[in-house]
Amino acid sequence: MARSKDPAVRALLLERAAHMLRTRQPVTLRSLVDGTGVSTMAVYTYFGGMDGLWTALRQEGFRRLAARLDTVDATADSVRDLTALGAAYMSNALADPDIYRVMFDAGFDLEDAAAADATLHRLVDAVERAKGDGRFRPDVDAVELATRSWVIGHGLASLVAGGPLPDAALAHGVPLLAALFASAGDDPVRSRRSVEAGWVVEVPESGVLVG
Amino acid sequence: MARSKDPAVRALLLERAAHMLRTRQPVTLRSLVDGTGVSTMAVYTYFGGMDGLWTALRQEGFRRLAARLDTVDATADSVRDLTALGAAYMSNALADPDIYRVMFDAGFDLEDAAAADATLHRLVDAVERAKGDGRFRPDVDAVELATRSWVIGHGLASLVAGGPLPDAALAHGVPLLAALFASAGDDPVRSRRSVEAGWVVEVPESGVLVG
DNA sequence: ACGCTTAACATAGCAACGTTATGTATTCTG
DNA sequence: CAGAATACATAACGTTGCTATGTTAAGCGT
């Protein structure tokens, strides 16, 4: 056959692209490879072009999101845990606003949909656990409730991360989720307490915002 | 002085850019002016460059949004009206997904913030009218409740318009808004009825989706 | 063990992009 | 009615993503 691709080069380019995105430098084919020792062709052998790089970057974003969601561990309060997943989602979006924007930008293909589905599934699991605990009505559809939580989380993340709303608007997450969970059958007072306990969002360069 | 700018040319370029965006043609400087008889310089005299064109396009988007929100007229049911504003917001986003995306994309400057604020203000007014009708608790902050409605609307619009969720997901708007309004003091059953009455979203090429 | 095949990579060039410099025409002003 | 300033066309410049071409090196069959 021939030479085999070096996975380290791929990782290097991906890392560098993410870093350039974070530091607000325009990510162009030439600026990406400048100083790395590799030529522009590397982007084509590893990603098939710039479009492929963006796709890979989206998947890297979902990978990081998944990693952050994994740091949320289950407690006795399943509604708190569900909220904590939402807070972790938010922390991830704020940690890298540009990557988050790229994740949901124009070229949302089937691969990305699968990745998005995987992260949504974690929410579904959390909802089902809460149902098992009797927090939600038995007739509540776990996928639907998870999707609605996602709508709230994405709306908030999208408007705060580089959007028109300030960081302080993250506080809206608590009443929004509490209202949603109460509508699914959870006791309003108890729900509020659980959500306040779980809503801990890390805001870069401004510490931690607690609900 | 000298020749005066022709407002018709500005409107023509803006209209054409919006049309190219809707028909998924890439909007480039040259493709924009091709066939219009004007030269590439027109974009610079009228908008100061492509960035200026995007800013103008964002404002055009907010203008259209405002126009659509104006078609919602007040009825005796103020919560229905508030929901109808949300539905109109959604219809606008789905009618021109690409313009909607541009509106909330990267270059969100102060002008855009003002435009966004103006549209948010209509929601605030509607919330205050509902408070006057005794539908919401007196201690409810109108701006906050309006912002939370916006978070739901934007999250849904963003995930449906070109995003991972299908058009059918628009139906989530009803339970989400109903839950939010109920948490603000509105009677749950009555709220549900009002929201179902107001949630009428126009989906292009697939008719009208009623809650 | 050796040569052929094939993939990885560098170099160079292409069309198209946004922008700017330059020149011309037009229209308001003094 | 002349002067000046602005609208606009034309053309060029640097940079973009991409591709064609050439070279090098790794893996397999004999």
TrEMBL record, chains A, B:
This is TetR/AcrR family transcriptional regulator. Keywords: Transcription, Transcription regulation. It comes from the Bacteria. It holds the Pfam family TetR_C_33. Gene3D superfamilies: Tetracycline Repressor, domain 2. Residues 82-166 form the HTH-type transcriptional regulator MT1864/Rv1816-like C-terminal domain.
